[in-house]
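DM from R.C. (forwarded with permission)

"hey, sorry to bug you on a friday — could you get me a structure for this? deadline for the figure draft is monday and I only need the backbone to look sensible"
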Amino acid sequence: MPETSQSSPPEAPHQPYVPDDVILPEFTWSAVLVGAVLGIIFGASSLYLVLKVGMTVSASIPVAVLSITLFRVFSRVFGMRRASILENNIVQTTGSAGESIAFGVGVTMPAVMILGFEMEITRIMVVSVLGGLLGILMMIPLRRAFIVKQHGTLKYPEGTACADVLVIGETGGATAKTVFVGFGVAFVYKFLSQSLHLWRDVVSQPLSWFKGAAPALEADPALLGVGYIIGTRVSCIMVAGGVLSWLVLCPAIMYFGEHLGQPLAPATMLIRDMDAGQLRWFYVLYIGAGAVAAGGIISLGRALPLIVASIQAGLSDMRRSTSPLPLGEGPGVRAEQRKAEGGGGKGELTECTSPHPNSLPKGEGTIAANSLPKGEGTSPLTRRTDRDMSMRFVLFGSLVLVLGIWAFLVFDWQTGGSVTLANLGVNLVASLLIVLFGFLFVTVSSRLTGEIGSSSNPISGMTVATLLLTCLIFLALGWTAPPYRLVALSVAAVVCIASSNGGTTSQDLKTGYLVGATPKWQQWSILVGSLSSALVIGVILLALNQAGTIYSQKNLPQPKRPLDVAQLKLAALRETAPEDDRSCYVWHAVEGNPEGVPPGKYLVDEGGNIRWFVDPGISGKLTRRDNGTKVAKLSPPQAELFALITHGILNQKLPWALVLFGVIIAVVMELCGVAALPFAVGMYLPLSSSTPIFVGGLARYIVEKVGRRRADAPASDVESEMSPGALFSTGYIAGGSIAGVLIAFLTFPLFEKMTNWLAAIGEDVPYQTATALVTFLLLSVLLTLVGRGWLLNDR
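My reply, with the result:
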């Protein structure tokens, strides 16, 4: 055994790909614009995905690949200057904000509607903007502590992989053809399935000999791509949770309860009259919610040592991180060292290490005019790669956002009651909780992203912890009325979005640190990307909800006492059902209302009579319209969980026995060495959603394990992020999700004739079930062939 030295040699200074003393085009209008557009596209894709399965896929790498390819196409077709590596980095930084905003909005905002409140565009937009910008500004002072000083400790796996993508693209080795082909295949497949109805999008078969069990498969290319990217083990764990819920718990409940002569709480109907979906809604949903909550808290607890270390590091380095490192200290300082070693004099550039010197703009030896802006508070001697956004702007901006949060909560309260001194106190407490939990979990999220990556970052667990603590504080103070539930959920929503964006920001800054970007321009670009995505994401969310909304007149409830029409007139909320010309008042019945009506949204006429029940497209109960037309629903697991937590704690009415069943199941899985959170998410999701994820994981297994691996195939961590199968899966996810969003827009009355005409094409097509299975099998085989390198292989 070789002898080892007592002390390890000092780590070599960090050498970014673009040297500190080389100036390339970076923060240009074309890069920011392309990044903002790609961010909105991938934000819409991520929102659709999180509403279906409660997860998203990091957008940084596909955005970087698309940026490299798009600018190359623009250069060849229009004769434009080829984009520099720093411009491509700005594109991925700007575009990555869309995915993080979409995740935070998708897992929190639908809970507002589940609790019985209106999911308003203003509320979504304000929460998105405040949470997104606050997360970025809170992360900026931590950059030197996490990115610079702990460069060798915090790896930021996705950020490092994205930097390698940019470098490979600079040398001509990256292509987006695989992503574009996957996008096109998935888009056409989804359009043929959901618009033309040439085959079924969900194949399900209840088992008559095994009551309560209903195996199902959703033929969705987006879910197939998700399964491939998350890998074989996680996809197997997820489908195992689905098997437990739909093939064990549901049949067990039916077996033990089908002979009961009365409903078993919390259900309102006999068990023998339920199908698998109703069994899930009344019983398994609560079991899954308990498992998801426990899994999130366990994952957060497992990271507790890192959390404590993150807080200590963040607080201890805050003062020092607000001032730039002097020349000659810290990693990456080379200009003065080269000068001392005989390099050029002051102002002379050393040789650029870029393999494409012709990508440098004219006047290469001069500093760009916009690289040292006035009023930034930095010394002219401050290294380019160490320039942050002005701390005065960060502090002032954070203060403005906090005041905006307080004002927003005051505005929210006005929809539920008069503004009093006590109510203002509630909003002040809520604002302080947002600042406290926001800084805590932005720090935690940024640190955990560096340790375990953004895909494994337990944002849901942080949000559960925020919501639990907020609700318990409200309960202790006696704030349990319905408007307080809205305030508590708003606190959790802002913290969730801030934490998600904080982790994404740190990951992007790591990529910039490796390629040699200017931190200030990255910080500005992600602010632009966050703002543009936040302003659009609410429209997309409401469109997806409206696409699956059902107006029903069947089995309308009869109030125990007349409705207060005068109060409804005062609220001045009116809506018209699609099949009704009469404008009605909107009434949101909350849990435990004195009228004895089940919670939900209703349309009431002038006489106080309920005319319509409005079942939402997100987390709705009805799957068919009154005319028998089937409607696809979206059921985000985290949003339903957050609604259950908020209502259960503040209303103190929750079937705790069912929730504890789920908690114990999660603990048992952890004791068996199985990650509880993906298993719990599989329990909560429909089996039809976890089955295609499992098929994607199976394709990944075949690609990686079956057959001999090519001798020239790279074996680095980046290979899994940039492999043909991963890029093709990204195309599947984007194409299938974007098609789903566009199809949702086609359901609006403006496109009603077109939608009906398209739907009529596939009405008489035979063998739709068999066709769905065959076409989905072809999708899976195509993914496997691309992953094996037998198709779309440019090597």
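R.C.: lifesaver. The mean pLDDT is 78.
me: no worries. Residues 31-177+392-546 form one domain.
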